[in-house]
Amino acid sequence: MAQLSPLVYWSQTKQTLQLKVDLKDAKGAIADFSPVSVSFSASGHGARGVNAYKFDLHFYSLIDDEQATFVVSDNKIELLIRKLEPAWWPRLVATPQKPHWLKVDFDRWRTEDDVEQENEEAPRDVRQDYEKEYNDLQRQELGYVKEKTKKVYLMFYNLAMFVGYLYVVSVMGVLYYRDGYNSITKTYAHVGNAFKFVQLLQYLEVMHPLFGYTKGSPLVPFFQVSGRNFILFLMIEWEPRMHAKPVVFYVFLIWSLVELIRYPFYLSQLLGREVGLLTWLRYTIWIPLYPMGIVCEGIIVLRNIPYIEETKRFTVEMPNKLNITFDMVLFLKLYLLLLILPGTYLVMSHMSKLRAKKLGRGRGKRRQLHAD
């Protein structure tokens, strides 16, 4: 069955793009943005009646895909996009030939002349403008498509991490099936080393943005990975009495389930494949799992406090050569306070914004727009 594309009307300013998708009563809208393209799909009443519609656009120049979002209303869907560099584009798409379903939104249209700007088209790379045709030519000539080294590395990294967490969950599942609830206390003994290995490997995700392999700040993955490793190594590994606690089973399971969705999602993005269910899970499964994970981490810290009071582990007392003191018990209490209050809010609000950007702003926003 041929792919159906809705009518799309576009307009621009020097800094932004706006795409209006002519779909009424849209459901299941997904817009997947990359720096050079957008892939959109939704079901609704469009030019061909009530159907599933989809389109892909390769932009004329780069966009800021981290800031791109979309809003669903009763009679249309609007994609709001910010250009990476402020400039007037001579056209929306990379190729001179535009899709027949792409129209100009004359109601909002502005030209460079309106603001007395110079209109000169810079030299373009034909391989990027005709990416699909160029890849097809490579397949015909070479039998495969040459991929960039960075992309190949990231594909292997994400696949390896997925296999690592899948191994952990599989072993935990087999043990639980065989031994029932009694297996929970043996979790760390069976998968502890494997879990420590994959968690340490995640520090590579701190290096990726530093070397330009991924976008964003290295601080975000650093704090995320370090937070987990603080629990794993200092709170569990260093305290043998924690190894058999049931909470270790639950925190391993929660962390692994998050990663078993995240890494396949990254793989699909690298391969340019949009899997609607996987995208939905990536930006939805955190809603139940993150609060449960925070509770489990809090319990682990709380259970460690009497152990550290007893052993004085990581505590520095006077007198000493450096003439400093450090109370690990007080630190853990402050850590709990920060984890439960501002930490939870920051993580949940960040993920909520990402979900709104990727999956739309939901029915509440649709009602608000309709009322306006």
What does this structure look like?
InterPro entries: CS_dom, HSP20-like_chaperone, Tyr_Pase-like_PTPLA. Pfam families: CS, PTPLA. Keywords: Coiled coil, Endoplasmic reticulum, Fatty acid biosynthesis, Fatty acid metabolism, Lipid biosynthesis, Lipid metabolism, Lyase, Membrane, Transmembrane, Transmembrane helix. Its EC number is 4.2.1.134. The protein has 372 residues and is α+β, with helices and mostly antiparallel strands. Helix content is 51%, strand content 15%. The strands form two sheets. A five-stranded mixed beta sheet has the order 6-7-2-1-8. The longest helix is centred in the last third of the chain and has 32 residues, at 328-359. The radius of gyration is 25 Å and the shape is elongated.
